[in-house]
């Protein structure tokens, strides 16, 4: 750990970057940093025991199902469908890498003037796992409505100088040597399912009077919408109603 001087961007549209070309370069730097993380030889780095063996998504689906059940307050049809569907449709894990677990634009520090990543923050969810989880989590920005945070959906990306999702996927594949990028819909469904489980925990704390964040009550209202959105992606991945 060390002090790093630089810029943190909270809005994925990058309004602070007045030069349109800089915006694309910032996203490229963020994507390249993720790809390079996934190429690290974790065994050589002494991190061979940093995560559990086996299918990463199998563990994650089980973990967040348990977390959700432990804080459940309502019967949500979409969550029940996801809990049934996700374990039966797990993607094959073809690679194992160091995964960050919360890789997004506001979790990094950029050079004060150049489009270059100096530091990646918030490693509390990091482990050894399927690097597709990080890639899909980052790509979710393109499927999430723009709200002044990391979401980009609904924006005129070309006019803003922001890259398209497919260009980012192709860049990642080229940098990592990946020749078979799977459909993103299953991964999007999982990410939103996980987020619904996290927010459900916040909702339970709000109801119990233990929430520490003033915005927790507002956030807690999002659980049904997250669950429905996750199920929508699951259906796009092949789930049957």
Structure description:
With 241 residues, the chain is mainly alpha-helical. It is 46% helix and 5% strand. It is built from 9 helices and 4 strands, in the order αααββββαααααα. The strands form 2 sheets. A two-stranded antiparallel sheet has the order 1-4. Helix 2 runs parallel beside helix 7, helix 3 (77-85) packs across helix 9 and helix 7 packs antiparallel against helix 9. It starts with 19 loop residues before the first helix and ends in a 5-residue tail after the last helix.
Element string (H = helix, E = strand): HHHEEEEHHHHHH
Q: Report the end-to-end length measured between terminal Cα atoms.
A: 48 Å
Task: Output the strand order for the largest sheet.
Answer: 1-4
Give the tally of β-strands: 4
Number of helices: 9
Indicate the radius of gyration in whole angstroms.
Answer: 18 Å
Mean pLDDT: 94
Assign a percent range to the helix content. Answer: 40-55%
Shape: globular
């Amino acid at each position: 750990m060390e002090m790093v001087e630089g810029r943190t961007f909270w809005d994925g549209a990058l309004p602070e970057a007045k030069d349109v070309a800089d915006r694309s370069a910032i996203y490229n730097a963020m994507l390249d940093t993720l790809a390079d993380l996934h190429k690290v030889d974790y065994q050589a780095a002494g991190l061979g025991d940093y995560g559990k063996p086996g299918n990463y998504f199998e563990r994650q689906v089980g973990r967040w199902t348990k977390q959700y059940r432990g804080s459940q307050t309502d019967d949500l049809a979409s969550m029940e469908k996801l809990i049934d569907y996700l374990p039966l449709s797990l993607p094959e894990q073809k690679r194992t890498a160091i995964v960050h677990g919360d890789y997004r634009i506001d979790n990094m520090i950029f050079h004060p003037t150049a489009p270059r990543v100096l530091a990646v923050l918030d490693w509390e969810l990091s482990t050894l796992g399927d690097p597709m989880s990080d890639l899909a989590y980052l790509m979710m920005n393109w499927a999430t409505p723009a709200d002044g945070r990391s979401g980009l959906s609904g924006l005129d990306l070309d006019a803003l100088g922001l890259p398209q999702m497919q260009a980012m996927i192709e860049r990642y594949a080229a940098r990592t040597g990946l020749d078979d990028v799977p459909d993103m819909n299953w991964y999007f469904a999982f990410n939103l399912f996980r987020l619904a489980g996290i927010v459900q925990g916040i909702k339970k704390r709000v109801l119990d009077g233990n929430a520490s964040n003033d915005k927790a009550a507002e956030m807690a209202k999002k659980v049904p919408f997250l669950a429905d959105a996750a199920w929508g992606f699951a259906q796009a991945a092949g789930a049957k109603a």
